[in-house]
Amino acid sequence: RPFVELTGVSHTYATGGTLAVDGLDIRVNEGEFAAVVGPSGCGKSTLMKLATGLQFPQAGAVVVDGQEVRDPVKIAGMAFQAPTLLPWRTTLENLMLPLEIVEPHRSRLRRNKAEYVAKAEALLESVGLKGAGSKFPWQLSGGMQQRASLCRALIHEPKLLMLDEPFGALDAFTREELWCVIRDLHARMAGSLTVILVTHDLREAVFLADRIFCMSSRPGKIIAEREVGFPRPRD
Ligand code: ADP
Ligand code: ADP
């Protein structure tokens, strides 16, 4: 069933009057891993913001999980090009952030603390960060911080994971290692996690995604859509 649907979506930024996306039609099914590729400035980040309710289109409809998007979509986890860990919190405390937002009752947070910590540590271990929970972000390498950011995007068990160039700032070796990590994470969620990845790296899209949307700029339109038809690589 469709999980993220954009129908005839157009958006112009008031500042500069740029028509950032023009009549987007996108459908991503539940559990699918979709990638959106295209050159810088073609509207990929705008698409991401529209799909998560951080931005509202002037025309068209955005539906996520059967509901028209009117507010920021809380079922979404997000990770960006730069890891966005807070420097004065340990990795573990950074991972707690989404839980603090989803569960604002401090008493209940305290009561479930052991469970949350166990979950965070399990996630960290699954991306090869066992024991990094007590370290501060500045004590970790860029790749480790990016892994921790991914864990934080997943800790509240989002149904939708939005990745905006999350591997862009990494060296080629770390990047490919993280591709495997994210692919395994998605496979382990067995159809319950829908992912939309924005990237300008076609190889990355082909490696990770089940479905690829190609965008062109001026103005941002989908010019091609492909299901990745060949068998996915396995470990
Ligand atoms: P794209 O490759 O999709 O064109 P951009 O370079 O336009 O990405 O960046 C999108 C947004 O992210 C911009 O608002 C930009 O300021 C911000 N951004 C880009 N790179 C970084 C970075 N390394 N650290 C923090 N913010 C960044
Ligand atoms: P991409 O992520 O593919 O690099 P963006 O969605 O960031 O593309 O940008 C699409 C177009 O919209 C670009 O022309 C960009 O300059 C413009 N744009 C993006 N964000 C803003 C903004 N906050 N205000 C005004 N114009 C913007």
TrEMBL record:
One Pfam family, please name it: ABC_tran
Q: Name one GO molecular function term.
A: ATP hydrolysis activity
**CDD domains in alphabetical order:** ABC_NrtD_SsuB_transporters
Q: Where is the ABC transporter domain?
A: 4-235
Q: Which UniProt keywords apply?
A: ATP-binding, Nucleotide-binding, Transport
Could you say which protein family the record assigns here? Answer: Belongs to the ABC transporter superfamily.
What is the name of this protein?
Nitrate ABC transporter ATP-binding protein
**Which species does this protein come from?**
Phreatobacter cathodiphilus
